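Dear support,

We are seeing what looks like truncated structure output for some complexes. This example has two components. We would appreciate it if you could run it in full and send us the complete token output so we can diff it against ours.
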Amino acid sequence: MAVLFAHCGIGAAVRGIALVAQDNFSARYDLDRIKGIFSRPGHALYGQSYAGRILVLNTVKGGVASAWMLRDMAARGLIPAAFLFNRVNPILAQGAAFAGVPLLDRFDGDVTALIRTGDELLVEPVEGRVTILSR
Amino acid sequence: MRLNDEEKAMLAGEAGSPRRWAIAHQLAVGHFFDAEDLVPVSQAHIMGDTESLGEAGIAFLEGLAAAPRDQRRVRIPTITDPRGLDFSSYARLKQTDAMAALEKRTSDALEALGVLMTNTCINYQTVFPPVLGEHLAMGDTGVVIYSNSVMGARSNFEGGPSAVAAALTGRTPRYGYHLDSGRRGTKRIVVRDRPRDWSEWGALGGIVGSIAGSYWEVPVLEGIDGAPTSDELKHFGAALASFGSVALFHMEGVTPECRKAHEVFDGPPPVPAIVTRADLDAFRARYAAPGEKVDVVVFAAPQLSLFELEEIAALVGGRRVHRDTALLIATSPENKAAADRMGLTARIEASGALLLSGVCFYQSYAREIAEANGWKRLMSNSAKLVNIIGGYGYLPSLGTTEQCIDAAVAGRM
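Here is the complete output from our reference environment:
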């Protein structure tokens, strides 16, 4: 069981399966939020479902829309179980706080390399800790 | 985080549930970014297009609006970013009555909070320009970067919920660009060839944004000889924020916190990236599609100033837009009224173009109107727009204002 440490985050502890890419994130431009899949053809996770997965990406891009959109995605049950980033801008932190979605960033190392798709994770934002339960 | 007695009372619910939600939200965000306290802000600016809000966001605003009047009213002057729909022209764009109904619910809720429906992303040109050192809660990336950089004001990107929170509490978490330490230069750019038009200022923003690449980087530009205009800096900043998520730049001899470039770096200035004419040309070439049919030509993102509208009216010059091409222009309600009064709207719309008020193209259900109107190939002079609109399925091209107008008339590039 490997344990990764990050800056203390937002939200409650959660367990889930990782979906990882060395790419960035915009709720407005990368997602089909009705179907719950990555819909921008150039995105590394194009065509994949993000619902219920622990999404692990590099950083956030795009404008301010994600701050509203995460809550609507949560209300419709099509949202990642948690977000892990190398570094976020304020918009995703605000959106996570508004939607009640767990968020961590500022890891000791590149989180997109430390975690692999399919890893089972325990995410503990208050402690700033992610445990890889199984690989 | 340190809270004063008034802030503690808000958190305890003594000022009502909207303000309790607002300050709790601010504490969560502030804690995440290591803010030590909250800083009073003099204005808030709310982005709230209904596509972004969704039913959940609209219901949230309606919940705030249902609180007693003394609990729900904003505490500082609060204004809005462009709406998703212009009630006077939505049917022509094939937006739906259902979209209009969502827009009405949102506007009603915001007005019940005491928000002024300015519906603009160029409030620094048209409503109330920020002042050096003024702390703000601005909710549009273009507004933030212009306010921070050109005016020397202090704001982070405040997404819709956080801008609403700032409006209700009159403060925001003190981190990032509210701090002196966050405003120091981190990247150095030397510009060898001055951009020649608005699309090239946007291209420069795109190039610098790609170099910076993060909200936490502060690019410092050297080599811009003589002050650019407000519209040039508007296009530059909007593209820089769009391509790089950047919230502050310094420009030597131009922006108020950067008399000399070396003064804004901690330690020796870093080795610069050089931007030349070839880089500007290559940027535009990425979006080139010569001879292609054009479905829609868009002037927006940011909304147009009165001077930009005047230039478009002159370039249209009595010509007609091609029957298979749409020409759309978005401006603020204040500029639309001025354009009406000065005859600019009539001159522009005589061509078959549509001058939209209080909206912006990409915030107006861009995917749905593309499908409804059969639009694919889009041309604009806005580097920001061509950067983001591909995410909605468009094939974007960047041209000068004159090239865009000519394409709208010819129906192709």
